[in-house]
């Protein structure tokens, strides 16, 4: 009589989009994890057109779930998390290269601290300089500026030689280990978000539950620059920018009240219109500004309907 396979301890979940080189390097590193037999690797590909499908044969132990279009990070991660069999979920960006002991070190930390629902390693570059970004949770005052920018307005200092595990309000989602029961209790990610703001949403839910997320400065992983196999057209960049703005309005409505969300959405519409008119008058990237304005006006998050993605 055959014995049933032992369920994995950790499921590594990677959402990829046109980043075949980074994805290959990420998977090669995961294959060296020790012990490999307790690790499940799931890749959800968001409609890549760069030859990522060829990786199936290179990594037969990994599970590849291929979507026909880019449906956004929220839907892709929900598909991955619902498919995962482990109690711990490692969300991993394709540009991150773990060390052989990374996964087991993160899992051991969560094993030892029942109040922690998330543990993140310290991201470093090739010269071992810290890259992890620890941000404060967004406030109603900072949501507007954050809706326009692709980088945080403020980051908190990180001491790479500091305490072994430090509670942080807003962990870097490029590499983070989560307890699946906590995510399942939230009914997974809210798909009113498209591609952006999942990190802020989960961080807020962790705080509201009275739990904590930890940064493990002693667990370092190499993070390469995020790269795509080809440049996105202006319409795709505009759609992503609109998704970021709409995600901010969704976050405001959920955590500061419906009126706050409506006010922010209105401010974003009129602000984007003003930017569009200014760009048209100056003949400076009017296509991008109009595309973002139209996306915000119509509430068009990243959901697979964007043909440019």
Topology:
Blueprint: E1 10-16, H1 20-31, E2 39-46, H2 55-58, E3 63-67, H3 73-83, E4 88-92, E5 96-97, H4 102-112, E6 116-124, H5 140-148, E7 166-168, E8 175-179, H6 180-185, H7 198-208, E9 212-223, H8 234-256, H9 258-282, H10 286-298
Parallel strand pairs: 1-2, 1-4, 2-3, 6-9
Antiparallel strand pairs: 4-8, 5-9, 6-8, 7-9
Question: What percent strand?
Answer: 15-25%
Please give the CATH architecture of the largest domain. Alpha-Beta Complex
**Count of structural domains:** 2
Helix percentage: 40-55%
Secondary-structure element series: EHEHEHEEHEHEEHHEHHH
CATH class of the largest domain: Alpha Beta
Q: What kind of sheet is the major sheet?
A: 9 strands, mixed
The tally of helices reads 10
What does this structure look like?
The protein is of the alpha/beta class and 309 residues long. Helix content is 40%, strand content 18%. It has two domains: 10-223, Spore Coat Polysaccharide Biosynthesis Protein SpsA, Chain A; 234-298. The chain contains ten helices and nine strands. Strands 1, 2, 3, 4, 5, 6, 7, 8 and 9 form a nine-stranded mixed sheet that branches. Helix 2 links the parallel strand 2 and strand 3. Helix 5 runs antiparallel to helix 8 (234-256), helix 5 runs parallel beside helix 9 (258-282) and helix 8 (234-256) runs antiparallel to helix 9. The longest helix has 25 residues, at 258-282. The radius of gyration is 20 Å and the shape is globular. It starts with 9 loop residues before the first strand and ends in an 11-residue tail after the last helix.
């Amino acid at each position: 009589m055959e014995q049933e396979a032992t369920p994995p301890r950790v499921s590594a979940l990677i959402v990829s989009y046109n980043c075949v080189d980074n994805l290959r390097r990420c998977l090669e590193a995961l294959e060296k994890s020790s012990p490999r037999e307790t690790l499940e690797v799931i890749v959800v590909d968001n409609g890549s057109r760069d030859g990522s499908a060829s990786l199936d044969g290179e990594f037969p132990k990994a599970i590849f779930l291929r979507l026909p279009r880019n449906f956004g990070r929220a839907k892709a991660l929900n598909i991955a998390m619902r498919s995962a069999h482990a109690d711990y979920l490692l969300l991993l960006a394709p540009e991150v290269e773990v060390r052989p002991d990374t996964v087991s070190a993160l899992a051991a930390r969560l094993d030892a601290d029942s109040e922690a629902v998330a543990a993140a390693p310290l991201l470093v570059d090739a010269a071992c300089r810290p890259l992890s970004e620890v941000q404060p949770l967004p406030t109603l005052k900072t949501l507007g500026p954050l809706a326009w920018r692709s980088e945080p307005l403020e980051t908190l200092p990180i001491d790479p030689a500091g305490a072994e595990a430090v509670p942080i309000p807003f962990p870097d989602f490029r590499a983070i280990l989560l307890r699946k029961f906590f995510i399942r209790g939230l009914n997974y990610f809210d798909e009113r978000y498209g591609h952006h703001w999942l990190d802020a949403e989960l961080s807020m839910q962790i705080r509201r539950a009275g739990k904590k997320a930890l940064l493990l400065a002693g667990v370092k992983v190499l993070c390469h620059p995020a790269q795509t196999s080809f440049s996105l057209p202006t319409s795709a960049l505009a759609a992503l920018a609109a998704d970021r703005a709409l995600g901010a309005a969704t976050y405001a409505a959920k955590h500061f009240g419906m009126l706050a969300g409506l006010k922010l959405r209105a401010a974003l519409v009129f602000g984007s219109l003003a930017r569009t008119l200014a760009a048209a008058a100056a003949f400076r990237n009017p296509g991008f500004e109009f595309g973002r304005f139209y996306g915000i006006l119509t509430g068009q998050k990243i959901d697979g309907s964007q043909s440019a993605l």
